[in-house]
Design a protein that fits this description.
The protein is mainly alpha-helical. Helices cover 59% and strands 6% of the residues.
Length: 128
């Protein structure tokens, strides 16, 4: 005596509708090979460092702090580096602009000033 109900399958009919049927209700045309749709998922994040830390006796709170503060620290350092890069670019543009203005407005005195600054910079490089 089998009191369990017949297994139910979901079948897509040729017109696109999905229906629930038991194996004895399947039309002969639909009893062919069944197509299996496999969904590939992304791999889980690598937790090797956390596992090693837990295995070496570090508490779960420290591991959780590492998981939380690790990416936070990386993003903060990236933001600081971006700020420094912007400030360096700004200093470069301002220096170039000042050089151009002094050279063009100053006439002979401006050109002499630019040359003397260039000579001083070369001298400073040689002394290093």
């Amino acid at each position: 005596m089998n009191h369990l109900p017949e297994p139910v399958r979901v079948v897509q009919l040729p017109d696109g509708r999905h229906v629930y049927v038991t194996p004895d209700q399947l039309p002969a045309a639909l009893q062919g090979p069944q197509v299996v749709h496999q969904h590939i998922h992304h791999a889980a994040p690598d937790r090797t460092v956390q596992r090693i830390a837990l295995g070496s006796g570090v508490g779960a709170g420290a591991v959780a702090a590492g998981v939380y503060f690790g990416p936070l620290l990386i993003s903060a350092l990236t933001a600081i580096a971006a700020n420094f890069a912007f400030l360096a670019f700004l200093a470069l543009v301002l220096g170039w602009g000042l050089h151009t203005v002094v050279k063009s407005i100053g006439g002979a005195h401006g050109e002499a000033a630019v040359k003397s600054v260039g000579k001083a910079a070369k001298l400073a490089r040689r002394r290093r």
